[in-house]
Structure formats: structure tokens, C-alpha cells
Amino acid sequence: MADKTYVSVGAVEIEEIFDNKYKSTLPKLIQEALNTAIDRSSKLTTDTPDPKKVKGFYVAPGLRLAKTDQGIEGELKTVLGLWPSKQFFATKSSKAPIAVPNPAKLPKKVDELMAEILKHAQENVVKDLEGRKPPTP
């Protein structure tokens, strides 16, 4: 079996968020979800002995979570590039709205929304990177 290609997942950039309490929890959730999806791949990994000495891919996630008239809407943009140069070559977007008729259920609805967005983002990012030729050392 060939070696897996290294993928570095960058810090999550918060582009917009309607409640600051999510600034501390959602970036960690997003990074863990992307790392898990990459590490489950037969072609990709987030593990490397020295990230500064290896070539691979880079994922830069950005989150927008906003209130709407009917509920909330979230979007996770992932910019894909080469590692370590961070030369970008593609952007993937996963977004979804969700109705929140009862404000007391907002935290649960945020969890549901993020689960939906992350599932799509995980599939999108891994599929794209697996289909690309790995950078040569």
C-alpha cells in the first residue's frame, strides 16, 4: 500500500457568528470532524513526524453562522491548497438553513445544523483531495 498523503487542517476562521458562545466550541468541533474524516481515508492522513518537512495538502475552514427570519443558517467554506506553501487551488462550500420556531430549542438546532454541514463538508473535502495527485517531495 502506498504512503498516505499528509493534510494540514488550519485554524477555523469565524467569518460571522450570531452568538459569541459558539466561538469557543464550534471551531474545535469543525477541526475534529475534518481531521477524523481525513484520517478515515485510505489515501490521506493528518499524522506526520514533521509537518515542516513534508509536502501534502492544506485545508483552511471558515464558518458563518447567522440568524434568519425563520431560524438559523450556517455555511462552512473550506479552501483547499498545497502544503506547506498554502497555495490554494479550490474552494468547497457546505451550507444549510434550519427553522427554529421555538427559541428555547436554538442550541439543539445549532447542533443539528452543524452535524448536517459537517457531514457534507467531510465528504466534499476528502473526495476532492483523494482525487488529486499528491504533491511530490
Could you characterize what this model shows?
The protein is α/β, with parallel strands linked by helices. Helix content is 32%, strand content 36%. Strands 1, 2, 3, 4, 5 and 6 form a six-stranded mixed sheet that branches. Helix 1 runs parallel beside helix 2 (106-130). The two termini are 18 Å apart. The model has no long low-confidence stretch (mean pLDDT 93).
State the shape. elongated
Indicate the CATH topology: Double Stranded RNA Binding Domain
Q: List unreliable stretches of 5+ residues.
A: none
Average of pLDDT: 93
How is this fold's topology laid out?
Layout: E1 5-9, E2 13-17, H1 22-40, E3 44-45, E4 56-67, E5 71-83, E6 88-99, H2 106-130
Q: Summary?
A:
With 137 residues, the chain is of the alpha/beta class.
Using brief descriptors, characterize the structure shown.
elongated; alpha/beta; Double Stranded RNA Binding Domain; six-stranded mixed beta sheet; 137 residues
